[in-house]
Amino acid sequence: MQIKCEINHKEYEIECSPTDRVLDILRAHGFLSVKEGCGGGECGACSIILNKKLVNACLLIAIQMQDSKILTLEGLESETHDIKDNFIKEGAIQCGFCTSGFVLRSYDYISNGGVKDEKIIKESLDGNLCRCTGYQKIVEAILKSMR
Ligand code: FES
Ligand code: FES
C-alpha cells in the first residue's frame, strides 16, 4: 500500500505493508533519532509526535500514519535547542541512547504548559527509561529549561 503523510514538515509517499512498524519506516527514511529500545512500549526511546500527541513509534503500524503529521527530534531541532543544551550542561546524557526520547518528552511537557514542579516532572517521565543517569540530572535539565 501507499502511505501519504507529512514527516518533519515534508510530504512523503511511502510504499510499505500496512502492518510495517512506524519505528522501522522512520528509521529506514533516515530519522535515526527514533531508537528501538524495548520494542514493546515501555522505554520511550522511539518517541515521536504524531498529530500533536507524544507516542511510541514501536507500537504503531503503517496504516496509522495515513494522512498524519509526524514530528521527530530532527524536525524539532530549533525548538529543542535549549533543552538539549541543558541536558548537556546538567550531565543528563551518558550513553545517549535514551536521550532523544527524553528530549522529545521534555519538549512535549514544556510546550503543553507543564508546571515547574519536580514531583510532577518526575511523574511525567513515567514512560521513559534511562539505564545510566539515575534520572535526577534529567529532571534538573528540564527544570532549567523552564527558567
Ligand atoms: Fe518503543 Fe521502547 S522501543 S517504547
Ligand atoms: Fe544511557 Fe539514558 S543515558 S540509557
Task: Explain what this protein looks like in three dimensions.
The protein has five helices and five strands. With 147 residues, it is α+β, with helices and mostly antiparallel strands. Helix 2 crosses helix 5 (136-145). The protein has a five-stranded mixed sheet, covered by helices on one side. The model has no long low-confidence stretch (mean pLDDT 97). The chain has two domains: 2-73, Ubiquitin-like (UB roll) (Roll), CATH 3.10.20.30; 81-145, [2Fe-2S]-binding domain (DNA polymerase, domain 1). The radius of gyration is 15 Å and the shape is elongated. Bound molecules: FE2/S2 (inorganic) cluster (2 copies). One FE2/S2 (inorganic) cluster is lined by residues 93-98, 130-133.
Which ions, cofactors or small ligands are bound in this entry? FE2/S2 (inorganic) cluster
Structural class: alpha+beta
Question: Cα distance, first to last residue?
Answer: 47 Å
How many alpha or pi helices?
5
Going by CATH, the homologous superfamily of the largest domain would be: Beta-grasp domain
Low-confidence stretches at least 5 residues in length (pLDDT < 50)? none
Question: What is the count of structural domains?
Answer: 2
How many runs of DSSP E, i.e. beta strands? 5
CATH class annotation of the largest domain: Alpha Beta
Order of helices and strands: EEHEEEHHHH
- Widest β-sheet, arrangement of strands: 2-1-5-3-4
User: What fraction of the residues are assigned to beta strands by DSSP?
Assistant: 15-25%
CATH topology type of the largest domain:
Ubiquitin-like (UB roll)
Largest sheet: 5 strands, mixed
Radius of gyration: 15 Å
Proportion of residues in helical segments = 25-40%
